Amino acid sequence: MGCLFLDSKRKFEWHSGMLIPGMQLQVPFFRDLATVRNPQSPFTFLNYLKSKNRLDQFINLRNFYPTRIEYHDYLSWVCEKLTHVTRFGCKVKLITPIWDKKGKTIEKLEIVYEDERDESVGSYIAENVVISLGGEPYFPACAKGFEDNNRVIHTASLLEKIPKHFTNLSENYHFIVVGSGQSAGEATYYLLNQYPNAKVSLCFRNYSLHAIDNSPFVNQKYHQSSVADFYHLSSLSKAKALQDLKASNYSVMDLDLLNELFKVQYDDSLQQKERLNICAGLSLEGIISTDSYAQVDAKDLYNETTTSIRGDAIILATGYKQDNYKEILSGLDEHLIKDSAGEYLASKNYQIQKHPSMQASIYLQGYCEHSHGPSDSTLAIMSTRAELILEAILNDSSSFMKRKEYFNEA
User: What pLDDT does 406 receive?
Assistant: First the structure.
C-alpha cells in the first residue's frame, strides 16, 4: 500500500498570512489530525508536545486551544514525517481519464501537474484521488483586478504584505478592514497592536458585531456523528440548517477577541483617542486604489445613504471561495454525477458519485458543506473524515490500493 501527496507550495504552509502572535484556534486541540480517530496515534497534538518537551508547560496553561502559530508548528512536524510521500511545488492542472483496453471504462486517472520550480510538466497515475486544494482568497466583484495590489490586501497575505509596504510602525496610517468574521477581528487586533498610532475602520454589513455560538449543543452539530443525519435531510432542510448554524461559523468572532477589541476602544477613549472606528451596516459597493491612497465606497443598509472611507490600505476579510477544484475535473464531467444545483454529488464517504463508465474514484475534502453539513469546512472532522475516505478506498473491491502500488509515475 502506498500514497502520494502533491502540494503546489514549495514548502508546507497553513494560513501563513494570518499567523498572528497570540491568536488561538476556535476548536480544541483534540480536533487534530488523529486524536478523535485514534488517541494512540503517533501523530496527535499531545505526542507533538511531548516530542518538543512542552507537554507539562501546555498542561499548565489549562487551555484546550493552542495558538495558530503552535498549531502550524504541529502540522509542520507531522509533514516532516511524511516527506518521503510528499512532492512540493507540484501544482495539479488537470485530471484526465485513462480508459481500459476496450475503451469502455475509465480504469485509472492521470494527474497532470506543473512543477513550480522549473515549469516542467509531469503526471502520476492512480485509481483513487483525494482532492483537498483548500479555498482561494475571495475578492468581491468590485475588488476584481486588485489581487496583486499593494493597497488592497486579502487577509490571506496580511502578514506578508502589510509589514512589507507599511514599514513605519509609528506612522499614523489609516487601515480599512472589510468583514465581520474571525479573520476581520484578528486583522484589526493585529493592526491596532502593530501600529499604535494607526486608525482602523472596521466595516461590515451587519447591524453589530456578533460572537461565535460555540455552546455544547451547537458544537455537537460539528461532530462526525452529526454528518449522517445532515446528509439525509432534504435540500431545503439542509439550507435551513446551515442558515440556522451560521452564527457558529460565519461572520462571527470569538468572544474573547471581541472583548479585547472593545477594551482597546475603551482604553483609547480614556486618552481621548479614536483608533478603532466601528462602521456597521455598510455594503461594499466599490474600491479605488491609487499610488497615495485606497478608498472604499459603500452603501449604508440602514440609513439608505452612500459613504466613502479613504485610507492607506484596504484589508479584505472576505473569506475564501471553495469551487477552485472544479476546473481540474472538467475533463471528467460527463462521467461524474451532479445535483440540481450543479454541485458534484458526493456519497456519505465523500466519494463523488459516478456513472458506470467510470471505475476510478475521486474523493472530496472540504467541499461538501452543502451536502455533509457545517463541519466540512472546519478542522472539526479532519481525522474522522480521512478515516472514512481511507476505509472506502480499502473496501472498494476494484481498489488499486489492494495491488502492489497505489501510484506510478507516468
Answer: 38
